[in-house]
Amino acid sequence: MPELFVTAPNEQLDDDPPPTTQPADLGFGSVVANAVRGRFLNRDGKPNSKKYGLGAQRLARFYLAALAATWTMFFTSMMAVLLLLNGIFALAFVSLGNGALRGTDVMGLTDPFLQAFTYSIGIFTTTGTGTIHAFGTTANWLANLESFLGPVTLVIAFGLLIARLTRPRMNIAFSESAIIAPYEGGRGLMFRIVNTQPGELSDVQARVSMARFENIDGVRARNFHQLALERNSVEFFSLHWTVVHPITADSPLAGVTPESLADSQAEFLIFVNALEETFSTRVSTRSSYVWDEVRWDVKFASIFANGPDGVIAIDVERLSRTERLDEGATRKPAALESEPVSKVYN
């Protein structure tokens, strides 16, 4: 799943293109941009980079992992931790001998571990243990320790649960590949996105940048280009959106072929932000396609499905489905494109 980011409620984002004096390297800097030999963004939106010298940051990483986990994984992990902790305390009580717990005859249990485990749960969750009580110095100290540790653990668990429930979510699914397909008498770079969450998104905005190596004046260097889109935003996003960059004479992709795209090691960086209506908060996500994740001589198949009368429906499972075209349909530049003069691919 692509990485999610949250901005301030109702924050206005600047969608105007950067001024001509502003570097177009997206903040990487020319030195880093030319030194990188892999992709900048992974498909899930996480940066393909690391920071050293900050320590392990285990607690922060645990918190972020707990927020990003699926609900099934979250509850399974939480229950596993609670059962494990109570099991450890139960084993500790059992190791103290049969006399460590008194009043267990009323439980109807003969297994010492089950007796200690049931007692441990009562102490851990502060629900009470009835007539059962610890006997002896070590057993009481162990019960005191669990009575402190239990509520703290439960507070952390429920705090994570509340954080997950109150966190604005946007789960955007991207088509498996970007494609070069016919578009208005020429060609276009396209990919499809859909909101997989039940909550509605509005004012969805997209930006696509391309990073590639270019040979300019005999020097091979990586340059960044912001690609003009057919439309930069959609007000309603109840179905899907096919994001299109028309390849015209003014496009950085004018005259592109599979071979030139591969030689330039192109990567398409995608940034999507939207208004999440449940919390009235702007959220964003990102992803990328590298040159070998771009398909040629295909077009997207219809994603629409038969719905009830008057209802427009789509089948999300068809998001990445394509139809093959004639050989060379999009591998060759269209007539309305012209070869860029200042860019020559090695």
3D architecture notes:
It is elongated, with a radius of gyration of 29 Å. Helices cover 26% and strands 28% of the residues. Helix 3 (71-95) crosses helix 4 (112-124) and helix 3 (71-95) packs antiparallel against helix 5. Strands 1, 7, 8, 9, 11 and 12 form a 6-stranded antiparallel β-sheet that branches. Strands 4, 5, 6, 10 and 13 form a 5-stranded mixed β-sheet that branches. By secondary structure, the protein is of the alpha+beta class. The model is unreliable at 5-13, 17-23 and 339-346 (pLDDT under 50). It folds into 2 domains: 4-49 and 170-324, G protein-activated inward rectifier potassium channel 1 (Immunoglobulin-like, Sandwich); 58-165, Helix Hairpins (Orthogonal Bundle), CATH 1.10.287. The protein contains 6 helices and 17 strands. The longest helix is centred in the middle third of the chain and has 29 residues, at 137-165. The two termini are 35 Å apart. Strand 5 and strand 6 form a beta hairpin.
Roughly what percent helix?
A: 25-40%
The CATH H-level superfamily of the largest domain is G protein-activated inward rectifier potassium channel 1
Radius of gyration: 29 Å
Order of helices and strands: EHHHEHEHEEEEEEEHEEEEEEE
Mean pLDDT: 85
State the CATH architecture of the largest domain.
Sandwich
Distance between the termini: 35 Å
Strand segment tally: 17
Give the C-level CATH assignment of the largest domain. Mainly Beta
What is the strand and helix layout of this fold?
Blueprint: E1 4-6, H1 30-35, H2 58-68, H3 71-95, E2 101-102, H4 112-124, E3 133-134, H5 137-165, E4 172-174, E5 178-183, E6 186-195, E7 201-216, E8 219-227, E9 233-236, E10 240-247, H6 258-263, E11 267-276, E12 281-290, E13 294-296, E14 298-300, E15 304-305, E16 313-314, E17 322-324
Parallel strand pairs: 5-13
Antiparallel strand pairs: 1-12, 2-3, 4-6, 5-6, 6-10, 7-8, 7-9, 7-11, 11-12, 14-17, 15-16
Helix pairs in contact: 3-4, 3-5
